[in-house]
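Let us practice reading a record.
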Amino acid sequence: MKEKVRYTFIDLLRGWAIIIMIEVHVFNAFILPELKQVGWFDILTFINGLVAPSFLFVSGFAFQVSSGSKLDEMRKLKFPFWKKIGRYTSIIFIGYALHLPYQSLSKVLNRSTPEQLEGFFAADVLQCIGVSLTILFIIRLLINSDKIYHYVLIILALLVMILSPVFWKTDFTNFFPIIISNYFNQTSGSLFPIFPWINFILAGAIIAKYFLSAAGKVKEDKFINRILITGIVMLISGHLFYAVPFPDHLKSIIPHPVFFIERLGYIMVFASICWHYSKWRNTTRTFVLDASRESLLIYWFHLLIIYSMIFGGKNLVTIIGSTLNIIECIAATIVLILLTIVAAKIWGYLKTKFPKYAVKTGWAIVALIFLKFLLS
């Protein structure tokens, strides 16, 4: 059994990803349409597009770090197995719950339009994480050899890159119900189908394996520096690919392998920066780590505030609309970040000081929300 270890730099990367994700949703929901046509917004959009891949990468990295714990018990389908499955399933359910067109089962069944139902069944980042981690978990349990397991992840990552362009040209609704076909491509509106987004999770798990090997030899610094250099080469290569006038048939592949390589390069650079920062500051007291520890709560909470019909049957998108300038969007982002960080700190404090009561309270709140959904 391996001792559970937390690496501050990967927690910092996750924390910054969830914080910037708040900015992404605020700006996308509320900024004036004409400001989206300004040149700087394209740069912001590219930076914002790195948030979800970073979050996925961290999920794969964290999975790999903890994957060697209690494997024998989980292979015997004992409690740790069901705990893991329950955790991944809950992530998937939360993802779908956030897409509910109404906070009432009766209204969902009787008032939902085809477009609303299509949005509900779409695979978002939480569904992608939950399903991808379940796949990795099953593979880990089936393969006893660490070396073979690692090679399987590499082969799987290559297969995903090869198959994704083919799958994106295939209408999987001809073969599966929409709730399943949505995990193959974006045909029915999925933002984060398994193909190709699972590759960021696989990359996180693969790189974590090499990092753990380097850590075992006390060579983390050398490994991180290699990751930094490799990441810089990858992201520069990605930009050069799109800048150089290659034939259209090489650039028109969707999703393009270069899309993955370029963004993975940025993530590797960000992870390296977080590593060096954590070594420099050597602290566990920062609001970024608070955000990281309660990332799921912050993700749910900020989307609830922006998109849920909790303001007299309306949401903030309907009430405010795309009416804010850049200063107002920045102010709204800061306010929402502060609210979510306070919520994360309070919940983290309660879990630390009153762990049993906090867990029971959490489940009670979930049960009440579900009961209200069923009865209203």
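A brief commentary: The mean pLDDT is 91.
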